[in-house]
Specification:
The chain has 124 residues and is mainly β. The protein has 1 helix and 11 strands.
């Protein structure tokens, strides 16, 4: 069973906007922590944004603060990432992830569920 499924990636020019969506299974959506990560050519996935179920607390990577917004829609079991003022360095495969526990959940190894990824390409 697919637990997380992303959509909304694509190609955009620098300065443009995109919205990524992630539909979660009911089980995955009950996680205390949901995040967006991204990966370029290296082996490590970088945390982009995180939202905690408790208090809807959000965290952002410094590189995207003020440009990206993470949000959830409980009625649709969905996670979103609104990206604006996109830069070529935002080009990556973006992954939706969920961690059952909020403890240390901003790192890849703490995730219990991963989506398949969606490509975002920003051209200059």
């Amino acid at each position: 069973q697919v637990q997380l499924a992303e959509s909304g990636g694509g190609s955009v020019q620098a300065g443009g906007s995109l919205r990524l969506s992630c539909v979660a299974s009911e089980h995955a959506y009950r996680s205390d922590c949901m995040s967006w990560f991204r990966q370029t050519l290296g082996p490590e996935r970088e945390q982009v944004a995180t939202i905690l179920s408790a208090g809807q607390i959000t965290y952002y990577a410094d590189s995207v603060k003020g440009r990206f917004t993470i949000s959830k829609d409980n009625t649709k079991h969905s996670l979103y990432l609104d990206m604006s003022s996109l830069k070529p360095e935002d080009t990556a495969v973006y992954y939706c992830a969920a961690a059952r526990s909020a403890y240390g959940c901003r790192v890849p190894r703490r995730q219990d569920y991963w989506g398949q990824g969606t490509q975002v390409t920003v051209s200059s």
